[in-house]
């Protein structure tokens, strides 16, 4: 049976008018133009100017130059910037987000042009509230992406150079879910950096000191969160790219007190669960083996790796009908020392849950594949090309359609190139990567890579949470976002063998995710906007669509 029938999602799908036909419920102000005479007369034709901007963008050779052009355009003409992004999602997302945002972070101090977002440093401890009140659009703030720069993508500790990740994610909230630009607040916390190269770089824009102790960071974070609430009472917070132990620690510490989620743990988990549901279905259809037969092997056990494993537990419990204990037994982890077993001395706390008591401490990936016999191999290791030809061949020998997800970001750290995975598996691989890969032709057929990136989930999750005015984000809301995404594939996309919908439909998908999140918030009683409870499904979707901001060009 298809997993869709198993979780009865079909009944939850409302029929609603298409996004394009729904007039906005709220009046959004039109962009203001300079007074007459202060710009060339032909600029009054926005369609021509749109083509001019697109041509200027495409005239740049390097991705980082395109990124810089787009950042400049965002400041000069926000509506035009978002118009370009919304209408050219597949082309522009890799420029404003992963993988190019990785270079934008690495070069932030060198390429810096103008202030954007807020920088709160350890030196502000004791007066964080005073600093936050300097934000000019306090009343409007609804969503903040907060990083401490300590683990940016797979690039490690970049200190204050992590700011572009907060900026990039928030641009996707606007483009992908219609959050108003004025409601977004990028924040980079500066608690020092252990990146010696940056500490020695005269251009480095952050504090010239090593990271503070955990105790000092706890005190700082407690004050920061308290003051965030006092200054921005309607704000949802997304924690981004904190180092693994801090990512888990601060999610646990604050998630019941504040509306917040961690994108690397929960957003990545949700997006991979979603793709996995569709991939497992395709794989089981090819092999004739039941969904409950799947076994998942992870390379990498950081915040994203373990977050994904936690979320994939619900694949086995919800869809394959296993108990939580059986579900856990289907998931295996490898870290730098090999298969993670419970008897290993000094095992990190977050690795204990999935540590095996029934396996030898094997080290070599191909040996481990031979022992575990996984149906799926997931990479969150940031080890470039870790999935070698031998690895893909071993997966293909075991499975009619092996599931291979090299999820590390940016693309230069991917465990496997798409073209290699396709050819080494003889075209049989079911593939999703964290960063985008271009389609490849193999055996006379075009193969399209899925992109298992959290950008499919966080905009819609945030939109739903903001509109429902939630007091906290429950695990079940993250799961609802994941199921709504998995469910959003059109018959056409399913027929093409896709496991994620086409990115061009992101706004429509975000509506479905937001509506699912609102409903789940209501079930859990964490919704503040109680009037939404009375709406039918089509009414809720139409209302959500009407709340979305669109560029006015
Ligand atoms: O930003 C991305 O592309 C995905 C992500 O959260 C990460 O890799 O940390
Ligand atoms: Mg991240």
UniProtKB/TrEMBL annotation:
What protein name is recorded for this chain? Malic enzyme
The record's annotation in InterPro entries points to: Aminoacid_DH-like_N_sf, Malic_enzyme_CS, Malic_N_dom, Malic_N_dom_sf, Malic_NAD-bd, Malic_OxRdtase, NAD(P)-bd_dom_sf
Phylogenetic classification of the source organism: Eukaryota, Fungi, Dikarya, Basidiomycota, Agaricomycotina
Asked if the record carries the keyword rRNA-binding, the reply is no
Q: Which cofactor does it need?
A: Mn(2+); Mg(2+)
Per UniProt, the cofactor note for this protein states: Divalent metal cations. Prefers magnesium or manganese.
For this UniProt record, the keywords arranged alphabetically read as follows: Metal-binding, Oxidoreductase
Q: Which GO terms describe its molecular function?
A: malate dehydrogenase (decarboxylating) (NAD+) activity; metal ion binding; NAD binding
**Organism, per UniProt?**
Exidia glandulosa HHB12029
Please tell me whether the keyword Metal-binding is annotated for this protein.
yes
């Amino acid at each position: 049976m298809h997993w869709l029938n198993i979780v009865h999602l079909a009944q939850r799908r409302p029929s609603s008018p298409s996004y394009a036909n729904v007039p906005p419920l709220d009046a959004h102000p039109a962009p203001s133009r300079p007074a007459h005479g202060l710009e060339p007369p032909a600029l009054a034709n926005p369609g021509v100017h749109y083509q001019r901007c697109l041509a200027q963008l495409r005239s740049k050779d390097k991705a980082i130059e395109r990124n810089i052009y787009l950042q400049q355009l965002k400041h000069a003409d926000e509506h035009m910037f978002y118009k370009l992004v919304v209408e050219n999602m597949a082309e522009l997302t890799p420029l404003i987000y992963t993988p190019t945002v990785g270079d934008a972070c690495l070069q932030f101090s060198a390429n810096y042009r103008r202030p954007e977002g807020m920088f709160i440093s350890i030196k502000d401890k004791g007066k964080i509230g005073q600093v936050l009140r300097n934000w000019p659009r306090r009343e409007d703030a609804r969503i903040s992406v907060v990083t401490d720069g300590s683990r940016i993508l797979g690039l490690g500790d970049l200190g204050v150079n992590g700011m572009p990740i907060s900026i990039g994610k928030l641009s996707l909230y606007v483009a992908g879910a219609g959050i108003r630009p004025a409601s977004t607040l990028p924040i980079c916390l500066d608690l020092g950096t252990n990146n010696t190269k940056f500490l020695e770089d005269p251009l480095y824009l952050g504090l010239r000191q090593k990271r503070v102790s955990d105790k000092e960071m706890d005190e700082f974070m407690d004050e920061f969160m308290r003051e965030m609430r006092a200054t921005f009472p309607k704000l949802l917070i997304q924690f981004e790219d904190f180092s693994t132990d801090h990512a888990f620690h601060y999610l646990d510490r604050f998630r019941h007190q504040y509306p917040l989620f961690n994108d690397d743990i929960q957003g990545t988990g949700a997006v991979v669960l979603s793709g996995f549901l569709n991939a497992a279905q395709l794989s089981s259809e090819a092999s004739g083996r039941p969904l409950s037969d799947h076994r998942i092997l992870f390379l990498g056990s950081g915040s994203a790796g373990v977050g994904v494993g936690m979320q994939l537990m619900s694949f086995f419990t919800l869809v394959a009908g296993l108990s939580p204990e059986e579900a856990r037994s289907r998931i295996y982890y490898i870290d730098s020392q090999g298969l993670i077993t419970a008897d290993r001395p000094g095992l990190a706390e977050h690795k204990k849950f999935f540590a095996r008591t029934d396996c030898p401490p094997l080290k070599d990936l191909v040996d481990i594949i031979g022992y575990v016999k996984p149906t799926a191999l997931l990479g969150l290791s940031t080890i470039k090309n870790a999935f070698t030809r031998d690895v893909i061949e071993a997966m293909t020998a075991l499975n009619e359609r092996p599931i291979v997800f090299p999820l590390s970001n940016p693309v230069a750290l991917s465990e496997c190139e798409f073209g290699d995975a396709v050819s080494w598996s003889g075209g049989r691989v079911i593939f999703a990567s964290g960063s985008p890969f271009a389609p490849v032709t193999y055996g006379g057929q075009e193969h399209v890579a899925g992109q298992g990136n959290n950008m499919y989930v966080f905009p819609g999750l945030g939109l739903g949470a903001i509109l429902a005015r939630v007091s906290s984000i429950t695990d079940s809301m993250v799961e609802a976002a994941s199921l709504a995404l998995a469910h959003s594939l059109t018959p056409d996309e399913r027929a093409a063998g896709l496991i994620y919908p086409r990115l061009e439909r992101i706004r429509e998908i975000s509506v479905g995710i937001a509506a699912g999140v609102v409903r789940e918030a209501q079930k859990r009683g964490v919704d503040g906007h109680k009037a939404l409870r009375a709406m039918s499904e089509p009414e809720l979707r139409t209302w959500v669509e009407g709340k979305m901001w669109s560029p006015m060009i």
